Amino acid sequence: MPYPLDRSVAASVPVLALENFTVSVRTGAHALAIVQDLDISIARGETLGIVGESGCGKSITWLAALRLAGDKVATSGRVLLHGQDITQLSERSLARIRGGKIGMVFQDPTSSLDPVQRIGRQIGESLKLHQGLSGSAARAEAERLLDRVGIADAQARLDQYPHELSGGMNQRVMIAIALAGQPDILVADEPTTALDATVQAQILDLLRDIGRDTGMGLVLISHDLGVIADMCERVAVMYAGRLVETGPATALLAMPRHPYTRGLIAALPDLEGPRMRLTPIQGTVSAPDALPPGCAFAPRCLMAGAACRRAIPALTQVSDLAHSVACFRNDAFTATAVAEQARQLSRIPA
Predict the structure, then answer these.
(1) What is the DSSP letter of 159?
(2) Under CATH, which number does the domain 7-232 receive?
(3) Which of 26, 97, 202, 273 has a 20 to 30 A CA-CA distance from 168?
(4) Any idea of the CA torsion for 133, 138, 141, 142, to the nearest 10 degrees?
(5) What are phi and psi of 104, to 5 degrees?
(6) pLDDT tens digit string along 82-100?
(7) Which residues, at least 6 apart from 5, have a Cβ–Cβ distance to it below 8 Å?
(8) Which positions ≥6 away from 323 have C-beta within 8 Å?
(9) What's the average model confidence in pLDDT over 205-234?
């Protein structure tokens, strides 16, 4: 049920928070940490963007927080929903929160939807579990949800199977299923993957409208910094399972303080001016069992020093705008230095 959004409250009261959250994978008698010491919060009505290369821990963080990553994955730390630590809940209690208080939209709707169940039945399962609706009441609500996510002729679509719908329509069905539980937080994991540009824009506009109308918080996981800049109020940058920079989207994208964030931005094409050669970040993300000592980004960093190779930098606030960065060389990143390095990295003639 929609409720009014007070942005002043949204900015100060966390609905969901990960505190000192670590994700480990059991391998025989050992446990390998793949996400370490994460502290992230999201307020009501806020849109938080999570960015980073593949393998940085973006998706596994949220799957593990909701206990969806499998039996070999263990977690430590706290996951606070309205102040309650849901890591202590039984599987039965957590099942009511998954899809209820916390909804999730996965990357590939064709593998997330059941191919042998009609659309109406799949939405109806969520409505029955989280709202107690069944029969004609559930069908009417499912039709309303399909209308809400922009699917035309909703009544007929309820009787169709996923293979009868396009990729964009299946993604809208996934969003409708997530909304069926009336969540306080929606985690959207690359929701526009494999969709064409026009449909991508429609899905993002839909998520923005839903957040505005309901006051629902949105966690948007994406590789696309353009999408993050357009959609998000706050950004968290992950590298090798750790947060390396976080802050308001406008400040972080205009003046990134971590060399990894600057590298991601330098690799973006410039739509104005002469054609320039894109500058990728050299190397790849280290595997969790082969991380270097000290800062994990040091082997790929142009500014790494001796301290970077000895110790892991802590996430430290660098401005009054709650902009924080984990980098020993942060004192060298003045506005002039950032502008000069950005020019050198991303303005090499093709």
Answers:
(1) T
(2) 3.40.50.300
(3) 97
(4) 130
(5) -140, 135
(6) 999 999 999 999 998 998 9
(7) 44, 45, 212, 214, 215
(8) 245, 246, 247, 248, 251, 252, 257, 317
(9) 92
- Domain boundaries of the chain, sorted by first residue: 7-232, 256-349
Q: Which of 211, 174, 245, 148 is nearest to 15 (CA)?
A: 211
DSSP 281: P
Residue 3 confidence class, pLDDT cut points 50, 70, 90: very low
DSSP secondary-structure letter at 164?
G
Query: Taking the mean position of all CA atoms in its chain, how far away is CA 46?
Result: 12
Which residue type occupies 281? I
CB 303 within 8 A of CB 329: yes
Between CA 318 and CA 190 the distance in angstroms is 29
Considering the chain, what is the average pLDDT of its residues?
88
- Could you give phi then psi for residue 152, rounded to 5 degrees? -75, 155
- AA letter at 133: L
Of all residues in the chain, the percent with pLDDT exceeding 90 is: 69
Cβ–Cβ < 8 Å for 62, 104? yes
Q: Which tokens sit at 131?
A: 């709202």
Q: Are 252 and 261 in contact (CB under 8 A)?
A: yes
Please give the structure tokens belonging to residue 3. Answer: 């409720």
Residues 163-204: pLDDT tens digits? 999 989 999 999 999 999 999 999 999 988 778 888 888 989
Among candidates 241, 339, 253, 345, which has minimal Cα distance to 297?
Answer: 241
Q: What is the DSSP string of 295-339?
A: -TTGGG-TT--TGGGTSPPPPEE-STT--EE--TTGGG--HHHHH
The residues with which 80 forms a beta bridge, in sequence order, are 17, 85
Regarding beta strands 276-277 and 348-349, do their DSSP bridges make them parallel or antiparallel, or are they unpaired? Answer: antiparallel
Per-residue tokens: 223:
């590789």
CB 298 within 8 A of CB 308: yes
